[in-house]
Design goal:
Pathway: Cell wall biogenesis; peptidoglycan biosynthesis. The chain is α/β, with parallel strands linked by helices. It has 14 helices and 28 strands. It has 2 domains: 2-19 and 236-424, Alpha-beta prism (UDP-n-acetylglucosamine1-carboxyvinyl-transferase, Chain); 22-232, Enolpyruvate transferase domain (UDP-n-acetylglucosamine1-carboxyvinyl-transferase, Chain, Alpha-beta prism), CATH 3.65.10.10. Bound molecules: uridine-diphosphate-2(N-acetylglucosaminyl) butyric acid. The site of uridine-diphosphate-2(N-acetylglucosaminyl) butyric acid has 25 residues, from α1, α5, α6 and α12.
Length: 427
């Protein structure tokens, strides 16, 4: 298994271009099961999750490939197969996004339940409730969700909230199903994340009829069939945010090009509060610090649904606050157990206590490089960022987690000046 070796002590300086958003492209790929013609997704990132989704779709009878420039081309010829097995779904929770499209197109599906993950239970009850509201019979057998809708799905009013706010992939699944249902579906409590809106735009390009895009109330008029389309995937705001925090943590200057600054307002607001300069244009954001060794002002964050502070940037923010000049509170409201990075940061000298869903981070002037274990995608990114400002060498093991969601992060950090290399032979 590969590991990253990070040598701390360098102020990052430079520009990086945002890749396409992982959490938009994966459900969009599943949408290829809904349409008749080829679906071209431009600016798809080169990620292992994209390759996993290509395999899941191949198993369902959808032919696909990723071209060198990233473009993913997919086509489902004829009726899809309807079984998505555990061996594939367990590798990537986002595979559950095939459930809605299969039920809509083939009127039945058998998709393995994705199971838990390192940061909690992660149920899919809302996805299932939504499909039931559209008329599917849903049963769970031998670890699989089975849906049946012999006469096809029918539009309905559904509420998709959960105890922790709206569900992102739940909204996507039900919305995709509704595009081919008979009549009108109204989704209340829809997730407003930009990735949901981008999927809506892709579906509209395929011929779907969706109103209220970007809002918590989506109105979908079902159509007889969807066709192919060409769609450019929106920029990955979480990747962009990670590079901005990398710039800040090193007191450096990092500009992210080809992104949507408005979608990162919660982060840029917190960065300013923490004492960094932030500038932005129509499609770029730049963060600048006062030089290596700069300690941020302690700045609290609470994760919330969009447009609040994203849970997918919580770990990176915690890494930044580890060196703050005082105590900050990081509260996780989406996944109260998403704290796998906490004990690893403590191994690097951070002072963090957890009190239920809140981490109390007492800034310290010095972090110390150590071998640490990546446990999930964003936790791994946080450990790399902490390594950039630690004394000595940090080895981040199990980097396959990072490769799921960051395209060539080692090369791109190196281009900003970081001393990061990938080596074989990790734990
Ligand atoms: N929830 C339920 N029931 C459901 C679905 C969700 O109770 O049926 C709860 C979850 O347990 C959680 C909250 O609702 O407490 C929100 O979960 P959501 O369904 O929105 O999460 P998701 O759709 O499974 C996506 C991203 C995650 C990101 C979350 C939150 C994809 C493929 N994944 O997950 O991304 O953290 O939304 O924004 O889009 C990542 O990229 O590292 C990642 C984990």
């Amino acid at each position: 298994m590969d590991k990253f070796v990070v040598e701390g002590g360098v102020r990052l300086d430079g520009r990086v271009t945002a890749a396409g958003a992982k959490n938009a492209v994966l459900p969009m790929m599943a949408a290829a099961l809904l349409g008749d013609g080829p679906l071209r997704l431009e600016r798809a990132p080169h990620l292992s999750d994209v390759r996993t989704m290509l395999k899941v779709l191949e198993g369902l009878g959808c032919e696909g490939r990723q071209e060198e420039d990233g473009t993913v081309v997919l086509e489902t010829k004829g009726e899809p197969n309807v079984v998505a097995p555990w061996e594939q779904v367990r590798k990537m929770r986002a595979s559950v996004c095939v459930l809605g499209p299969l039920t809509a197109r083939a009127h039945r599906a058998e998709v393995s339940l994705p199971g838990g993950c390192v940061f909690g239970v992660r149920p899919i009850d809302v996805h299932l409730r939504g499909l039931e509201a559209l008329g599917a019979r849903v049963t769970i057998e031998k670890g699989y969700v089975k849906t049946e809708a012999p006469g096809g799905l029918k539009g309905a009013e559904v509420f998709l909230g959960t105890a922790f706010g709206p569900s992102v992939t739940g909204t996507m699944n039900v919305m995709m199903a509704a595009t081919l249902a008979k009549g009108r579906t109204v989704i209340h409590g829809a997730a407003c994340e930009p990735e949901v809106a981008d999927l809506c735009r892709c579906l509209v390009a395929m011929g779907a009829n969706i109103d209220g895009i970007g809002s918590p109330r989506l109105v979908i008029e079902g159509v007889e069939r969807l066709g192919g389309a060409t769609h450019r995937v929106l920029a990955d705001r979480i990747e962009a945010g990670t590079y901005l925090v990398a710039g800040a943590i090193t007191g450096g200057r990092v500009r992210v090009d080809d992104c949507r600054p408005g979608q990162l307002a919660a982060l840029t607001d917190r960065l300013r509060e923490a004492g960094y300069g932030v500038e932005r244009g129509d499609d770029w954001i730049e963060v600048h610090g006062e030089g290596f060794g700069q300690r941020p002002r302690p700045t609290d964050v609470t994760t919330q649904p969009f447009p609040g502070f994203p849970t997918d940037l919580q770990a990176q923010w915690m890494a930044l606050m580890c060196r703050a000049e005082g105590v900050s509170l990081v509260t996780e409201r989406i996944y109260p157990d998403r704290y796998m990075h906490l004990p690893e940061l403590v191994r690097m000298g951070a002072r963090i206590r957890r009190q239920e869903a809140t981490a109390v981070v007492e800034g310290t002037p010095r972090l110390s490089g150590a071998p640490v274990m990546a446990s999930d995608l964003r936790a791994s990114a946080a450990l790399v960022l902490a390594g950039l400002v630690s004394d000595g060498v940090t080895e981040v093991h199990r980097v396959y987690h990072i490769d799921r969601g960051y395209e060539r992060i080692d090369d791109r950090l190196r281009a900003l000046g970081a001393k990061v290399r990938r080596e074989e032979g990790g734990e």
